């Protein structure tokens, strides 16, 4: 049996992880498998001394640009279909 993340054989005497999706991975390949196969949503930022998480400014600007672009696509798609009706 081979690791789903790196393809190397899984040794029988070492710890391996069994994911809820059904694959087996090395313990050190777990993060790679989760980030590649499941692509979880996450935010990057900083934590201050009061344990408050602050989202990085660059990420929020990118997210707002993506939202604006998707809204523009939806509006242009509606304009194209509405004259045909």
Tell me briefly what this model is.
The protein has helices at 30-38, 57-81, and strands spanning 16-18, 24-26, 45-47, 53-55.
Count of separate DSSP helical elements: 2
Q: Strands of the biggest beta sheet: in what spatial order?
A: 1-2
The radius of gyration is 21 Å
Form type = elongated
Helix content: 40-55%
Quantity of strands, as a count: 4
Return the average pLDDT rounded to an integer: 79
Q: What is the H/E string?
A: EEHEEH
Q: Would you tell me the structural class of the helices and strands?
A: alpha+beta
Number of domains: 2
Largest sheet: 2 strands, antiparallel
Low-confidence stretches: none
End-to-end gap: 57 Å
Strand portion, in percent?
5-15%
Descriptive account of the structure:
This protein has helices at 30-38, 57-81; strands at 16-18, 24-26, 45-47, 53-55. The strands form two sheets. The protein has a two-stranded antiparallel sheet. A two-stranded antiparallel ribbon has the order 3-4. The chain is 40% helix and 14% strand. A hairpin with a 5-residue loop joins strand 1 and strand 2 (24-26). It is elongated and about 50 Å long. The chain has two helices and four strands. It folds into two domains: 1-42, no CATH class; 48-81, no CATH class. The protein has 85 residues and is α+β, with helices and mostly antiparallel strands.
Topology overview:
Blueprint: E1 16-18, E2 24-26, H1 30-38, E3 45-47, E4 53-55, H2 57-81
Antiparallel strand pairs: 1-2, 3-4
């Amino acid at each position: 049996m081979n690791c789903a993340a790196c393809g190397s054989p899984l040794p029988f005497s070492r710890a391996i992880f069994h994911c809820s999706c059904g694959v087996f991975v090395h313990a050190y390949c777990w993060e790679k498998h989760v980030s590649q196969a499941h692509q979880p949503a996450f935010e990057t930022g900083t934590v201050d001394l009061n344990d408050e998480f602050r989202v990085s400014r660059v990420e929020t600007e990118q997210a707002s640009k993506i939202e604006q672009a998707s809204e523009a696509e939806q509006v242009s798609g509606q304009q194209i279909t509405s004259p045909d009706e």
